Amino acid sequence: MYITYDLKNGIEYAKLCVSKRDGINVSKEYVNLGRVLDRDQGIYQNRERGVFTYNIEDNIYRRVPASFVPPTRRTIRDRFVLDFGDTFLLSSFIKHSGLLSPIRAIKYGNPDTLMAMVLYYILCATSHCHANDWWEGNYARIMYPKTDLTSQRISDFLTDIGEESALRRFFEAYLPTFGGSKDSFNILIDSTGIPNSVHFPLTAISNHNGKISNEVRLIYVTQQETGLPIFFQYCPGNVVDVSTY
User: Which end of the chain is more exposed for a tag (fewer CB within 10 A), N or C?
Assistant: First the structure.
């Protein structure tokens, strides 16, 4: 078993070649790995798997490290007029308010993608499929040039920052600055249902005042004195309110 490489129209492609012997006859089967993004790291891209890594030694396909930034696409047209004010103002506020340290504490592999997505979530009410278009036409492209907002990478990003360990790292850095005074003990706790039909473990059927829906439950803990959130957690949608506390 070995990998072969071909060059077509200046683009390098890879195939996995598997030799099989039947008596004296030897046949070869080819598995398309797709476009070569980084030969040294074994990173490829095809329609079936998207962007992935493949290690021929153990014959395993894996997710691409978050720190990997794919080569710049030649089809991207440079834009000399970019939306500036909102992104620059919000980015400056995050840096000077102390929020930058908790965000960085998440330790996502591509900090540019993390910051760009924070800005996108706050400034835009559109779906994830428009995130890359926003970035290309926004000053965020200058501030965070290594951002990768392709659909697959956004999914990987949300998976990584949704881990319990990332959540704990964020609040360990957030609470000392934004948790309020030590003498303030009044907090407000509320859980709300988020409609969701994605097939994954947290989606469940909820019966809320006779209304049946598929949802995920989101719990917020806020400080009464300041109104700032001091913790949040998610749980399956069929967990009743009293159990979330």
Answer: C
